[in-house]
Each structure stands twice: as structure tokens, then as C-alpha cells.
Amino acid sequence: PATTMDELVSLCKRRGFIFPGSDIYGGLQGTYDYGPLGVELKNNLKAAWWRAMVYERDDVEGLDASILTHRLVLRHSGHEATFTDPMVDCRNCKSRWRADQLKDNKCEKCGSTDLTEPRPFNLMFKTAVGPVAEEGSFAYLRPETAQGIFTNFKNVVDSTARRLPFGIAQIGKAFRNEITPRNFIFRVREFEQMELEFFVQPGTDDQWHSQWVEARLQWWRDQGLLSENLQAYHQAGDELAHYAKACVDILYKFPHGLEELEGIANRTDFDLGSHTRSQADFGLSANVDPNEDSTAKLTIPHPETQKPLVPFVIEPSAGVDRGVLAVLTEAYTKESLENGSERIVLKLKPHLAPIKVAVLPLARNKPEIVEKAKAVKNLLMATGIGRIFYEDTGNIGKGYRRHDEVGTPFCVTVDFDTLGRGDDPSLTDTVTVRDRDTMSQVRIPINELAVYIRERLV
Ligand code: ATP
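^ thats the input. predicted complex w/ adenosine-5'-triphosphate below
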């Protein structure tokens, strides 16, 4: 795995995975842009999550709610009052810090210990809505995707006739005005989340919580993260948010340290209870603020008594960008080769690789070879396995190295033997397939190529 953030940042910029946001104007702190390969990797990770959460299960529905959010949603969710980090100012150099991130209570810039008392800083971004800038005509950019799920609870239940237990999954952007964005894409101001809200009958919540922790750990292992670099951290009572009954953080050994990749919380009936009307009718277990604004009862029939119930919710909440950083960290490998040289190879799981296959014609100035190579590309593309890259730089060795570095699992070479013009006529209509990890090469008939590759891409 990568041991420093610098080597990842450098690879990401050099090969087109991730660039600083607004780069040509000096950058906008806390924003990053995903380049040609980064967008593929990120999409593949999100697709793997969606597949595991929605397609492979029979108890989860999908959702894509809006980013602009009514202030009442974020007032009743508790975010207006409490979605804050403790901020301190350095009296010496005037810089600002998140108090709980400072080592030994020292300013990171000048080392001074002359700091103000921490005060709460609200992390939500506000934006004006509509052409008339009036007091109050603003909306929030959502600080998490979860609230869109809670506010659509009734819509989803009514339109799908779901009964407990069931979940709603969503992937999308979230925005937080972090006091100190840092560590590349680990802590940024604009990021993506993959969140599931899984609604259950109270009393079954502890068991569902443990099940989700296991399922999520297994999913991250399936994305290539090694068990030895993952840790499930059970928050102690005094670390828990006031509404949470339990929370397990999945930590990963990032280059900058062991840090949170995903949180899995048992949030009881706090969220739906906070957003429902007629709160007093439902015997809520969570302590919620009064709500005179909501127009809907966020209930579902109790599985046994059929009485309206505000269910408990288990929330696995993962960061897409932190996921991308984790799989890049794990995949990054430096190998010393027999000839004394070194190669950098991204050993990404094939389903995450931005490019699935590179097709390389042995010579770019031989029309028959070029034509054949393009036909092979089209044949592979038609199978729908993802991006197939036609690369006719003419230098096969360099092509292999470039594709090692971006994690392309297979390189396919078309040569004179393919055309039936080599020494061995039995090689006609075969191609060379080179494996990224072992660097071994095999000769495969073109008509078996799609099946060969497909079998090895999962
Ligand atoms: P932290 O303690 O690191 O600030 P958090 O506990 O506030 O994170 P949650 O509110 O639980 O984070 O958000 C769920 C997930 O969203 C996190 O596990 C993380 O993967 C992702 N996430 C949260 N904030 C950021 C951020 N600023 N940049 C990138 N990803 C983030």
C-alpha cells in the first residue's frame, strides 16, 4: 500500500485521477475534481455499493433527493442548532482551527498556545434562493444525504407498500464548511456520501445493527481493503451523539493514520420522530424537539399489532471520496523487477479499475493491424464491461507500464501472428493477453477473448 499521501497525490495528478478544484486560478480549498480516470474509479465504487445495497437485496429501495434543502428540514433535524465543530482562534497569527484536531493545544501554524476558548462553528452552507434576495429566502446545501431519506419516508412507503424491515439507499453530494480541510480528498468541503437508512421494529435494532456492521466490513474487504488495515471501533457511551444508542466506526489505515471511513449508527426513532407531526401519539423513545411544521405522520404499521409505529433506524453512512482514497492507498504497489528496475502498479480489484482492457496494436503504421485492433476493441466494448482503451502509441512496453500505473487489469496485443503472417499459422486470429499483477502473457483466440476477460473481471 501507499505509505505517504504525496505519492498518491502525485500519481493522481499525473495520470488524471484527481486534480485540485479551480486549479488554474490557484485552487479552491477543500474542493477536488475527478479527472478522466478518477471519474471511472469513483463511478465503479458507487456502482458496487448500489449493487450490494439495492440490487442484491430484496428489502432496499433507492432514492435521489435534491441537494437544496428547506431550512425547516435542517432545523427539525437538529442541524441548525447543533451541527457544529468547536473552533479556536490563534491570538498570535490569527489562524483558525478545529479545537479537537489540535495536538497539545498548540497552533499548527505558529506553535503558539495563546488560543481563544473553543466556540461552536456551524458547518452548513447557505445559498440564496430566487431572484429577490430577501431575509429568509435561502436554502441549505445538504450537509448529509440522510435527511432527504427521512423527509421522503412517507412517499416511499406509500408508493412501494413496503413493510418493516426495509431500507432506503442514496448516493449523492454533501457539503460541509469544514474549518480545516486537509489530507487530500479525506476531508473536503464538497464530497459524496453513500447512505442507507434501514428501518426496523424497535427491539430488533441491536441485532440489525450488528448485522450491518458485519455486512459493511465485508463489503469494504470485497473492494480490496485488507482486514489488517480495517478496524471496527465501537464508540463508548460518552462519545455517542445524544440520539444514538450505538455507533461503530469503520476505520481504515490511511497514509495519514487510522481514520473513519464509514459510520454505522443505531439512531433509534430520533430522525423520523423529529420530523413527524403528532409526535405525542407515538410513544417515541428518543428525546425530540416539538415540531409544529411537519405535515406528515412518519409511521408504518407495527409488524404484529398493525398500529402506526415510528420505526428505529440503522444508518450505515460511508464517504465516497474516503472510499476512493482507501482503495487507491491499498492498491498502490511499488515492485522491484528482476532486471533491477521498479514498477508502480495499482492492484485495484478489476471491478473498480477505470480501464478494463487496453488494446494495443503492435505497430501503428500497419493498417491491417490497426484495423484488427479496433475490431477487437469494439468486440470487447459490445460486452458492456466498461471502458476499453484503444492505445496506438506503438511502444508496447511503455503501454504496459502506463496501464500498470492506472490499474488496467488486462492489456491485449494484436500483432502479425494475429493476422496469420507470423511463423506459426496456428496463432492466426489469436491475441496476447497480459495480466497486470503477474505480468504473464497468454495467447487467446479472439472468439474466446470476451468470455476470458469477463470471467476475470469480477
Ligand atoms: P469526521 O468526524 O471525520 O468529521 P463525521 O463523523 O462528522 O466525520 P459523518 O457525519 O458520520 O462524519 O459522515 C459520514 C461519512 O461521510 C464519514 O464516515 C465520511 O466518510 C464522510 N465524510 C464526512 N465528512 C467528510 C468530509 N469533510 N470530507 C469527506 N468525507 C466526509
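The chain has a mean pLDDT of 96.
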